[in-house]
Amino acid sequence: MRTILPLLLFCLLATGLLYPEFQVSLSASENVATIGDRITLKIIVKTTPEINNIQVDILEKNFESISKHQFPGRKSREHTVFEIHEVVSFFSTGNHTIGPFRVKTIRDHKIVEEKTTNSLDIKIKSVLEKSDQDIKDIKDLISIRGNPFYVLKYVFLLLALVLLVVLIFLFIRKKKKQAKSRPLLLLSPLEELESSISELFKKNWLEKGRVKQFFIALTEIIKNYLQREYRFNAEDLTTAETMEYVERNESNTTIQQNLEFIFTTADLVKFAKFRPGSANLEAIKSRIKSIISVQKARTIEENKDQDVSVAQ
Question: Please, what is the angle between helix 239-249 and helix 253-271, to 10°?
């Protein structure tokens, strides 16, 4: 009996039943949230000491990724622990499933082993109150007698006229926009941003209740600034794609966090009918001022360094 027990223990260790060498887990900061709420996903991987890195692939993505950070591996004699934090948001209500994620361990740039994490169930609620959800049932169709094709030619003529008017309107609007933007091109990106923000607040759209129009204009102004400052086509990118590019090219975390807060609030207002309170609006103003202040301080320091290099 004494000789059999050590043999069984050795077999358990050899097969990994007593101590699994590769373990993965997925957890979330919230399991019930509203549209646009930021949810932190935490992926923890425990593996053997010789593993240098890990790779995580999303098998099915039904959320919008806001930011992602992988911590350096914590090594010990027995194992190495990797940890990844990813901040995500949902923009549709209902029951959603996060995961599973496919985790691959890497040693010397080669994949050693793969394993799938667990999946998580999360419920996304609307920001609307019950009193706002008063949509009535669709009425039955009304029967129309006669030949509908008789009026089709008039319908097509009307549509053609409407299309022509819209094209003319867009052409005139584009010309006006180009005419207004020409003097601003003489300004630096930061000067143009400050001037445009000042003109936007002079319109008093927030005081007049035109909150959605305000955030649409604010998003255009900031994306125009990012396009000139960082030289990428921000106008054609989503919020997540824009923030991903900014995080790669902007090291200042204050600017990153302020831009993320502004874009997230603007998306909630434009797409989720979110009505920000006075505290949210004051926070927006404060974060815009913070971005301009940080950039001004950076410009002053860069000019000082240039003057010193010229003097030398």
Answer: 170
Tokens of 79: 């194992």
CA angle centred on 222, ends 221 and 227, rounded to 5°: 100
Q: What is the pLDDT of residues 283-310, one digit of tens each?
A: 999 999 999 999 999 888 888 867 666 5
Phi, psi of 36 (to 5 degrees): 85, -10
Give just the sign of the alpha carbon dihedral 101, 106, 110, 111: negative
Q: Give tens-digit pLDDT for 57-112.
A: 887 778 888 888 888 888 888 888 989 998 988 888 888 888 788 898 988 888 88
Element (H, E) at 52: none
| The model's pTM | 0.41
For residue 92, give every residue at least 6 positions away whose Cβ sits within 8 Å of its Cβ, in sequence order, or none. 35, 124
Closest CA to 41 of 51, 56, 29: 29
